[in-house]
Amino acid sequence: MRTATLGPAERAEALAAMAERELDVLVVGAGVVGAGTALDAVTRGLSTGIVEARDWASGTSSRSSKLIHGGLRYLEMLDFALVREALKERGLLLERLAPHLVKPVPFLYPLQHKGWERFYAGSGVALYDAMSLSSGHGRGLPVHRHLSRKGALRVAPCLRKDALVGALQYYDAQMDDARFVTTLVRTAASYGAKAASRARVTGFLREGERVVGARVQDVEAGAAYEIRAKQIVNATGVWTDDTQALIGERGQFHVRASKGIHLVVPKDRIHSTTGLILRTEKSVLFVIPWGRHWIVGTTDTDWDLDKAHPPPPAPTSTTSWST
Ligand SMILES: Cc1cc2nc3c(=O)[nH]c(=O)nc-3n(C[C@H](O)[C@H](O)[C@H](O)COP(=O)(O)OP(=O)(O)OC[C@H]3O[C@@H](n4cnc5c(N)ncnc54)[C@H](O)[C@@H]3O)c2cc1C
Predict the structure, then answer these.
(1) Same domain for 40 and 182?
(2) Residue 286 shares a structural domain with residue 188
C-alpha cells in the first residue's frame, strides 16, 4: 500500500478511470458513512469509486459534536448491544485504528440528589467502563471516579456550589471529524479506490429495473461523466431522499432532517479542567473541550430548508437541547 495524495491530478485521473471501466461499487457521498463504505469495499478487493458533490465531510460529518462515544445514555434505554458495539469501536479507534486522531476526553456528571443518584448513575458508568474493558479494547481510557462536591468544584470551579451535591467523572473520546473522514478517503485511495470531490451525481443510468450507473457532473471543470457500477451505494445522509428522487422512484428510506446547534465558547469563559454532561428535560447537554474553545450542545429540531447551510434560528426562537 502506498499513501495516496488527493490532489487535482489524482482527482482528474480518478474521474477518467471511473468513466472508463465499470466499477464493482460506486459510493455517492463522502461523509463518514460513504468514506467508511468505500474503505470497506476496496479492502475486500472490490474495484471502488467514491464521488462527493462538495468537499470531503462537508455535510453533517464536519458538524458533529466530535465525540467517539459508546453512548452512555443508551445504557439507560437498556440498548446493551448498541453500547457494546460502540465501545468496541471506540477502543479500536483509540488503540489501533486512529490513535493520532481519537483522544480521551473527561466528562463530569454533577449529582443533584444525595444517595440514590450516586448509586444509580454510578452503577451506569461502572457498567459502561466494565463493558468497555470486556470488549478487549478498553484499556485506552482511564476508568470513572466518584467525587465529593469539593472535589467536583476543584476540577470544575465554574459550577455553582449549590447546584450539586457531588459528581462522577468518566471518560469518552473525541476526534477531529472532518480530518477523520479525509483520512478514511485517503486510506481508501491508498488501497486503490478512485476518489473525486466536487463531483456531483445528477442522475442515474438504468437498464430496465436495474440502476447500472450514475451521471456525474465535475463541478470544477464542468465536464459530465457516466460512471457504471455493479452496485451503487447512496451515502448522501440528509440528502438521501433527493438522491433517491433522481432515480425517479420512491426509495425504501425516508430521512427526516434535523438541525443541531452548537455554541462555540472561548476556553477562558468556562472555568473547568473537564468536559461536562448535564441532563436536560429531553436529553443531555454536553460542554466539550475543543482546542481553545468549548463546544456546547446540541439542540435537535426538525429542519426542512437548505440542508447545506442550516443557520441558527432567530434569537426569539425556543430551543430544546439534546445530543
Ligand atoms: C448536531 C449533531 C451532532 C452530532 N454529534 C455526533 C458525535 O459527536 N459523534 C458521532 O458519532 N455522531 C454525531 N452525530 C451524527 C453524525 O454526525 C452523523 O451520523 C454522520 O455525520 C452522518 O454521516 P453521513 O456520511 O451519513 O452524512 P454526511 O456527512 O452529511 O454526508 C453526506 C454527503 O453526501 C454528499 N452528497 C449529497 N448529495 C450528493 C450528490 N448528489 N452527489 C454526490 N455527493 C452528494 C454531501 O455533500 C455530503 O458530504 C451528530 C449529528 C448531528 C446533527
Answers:
(1) yes
(2) no
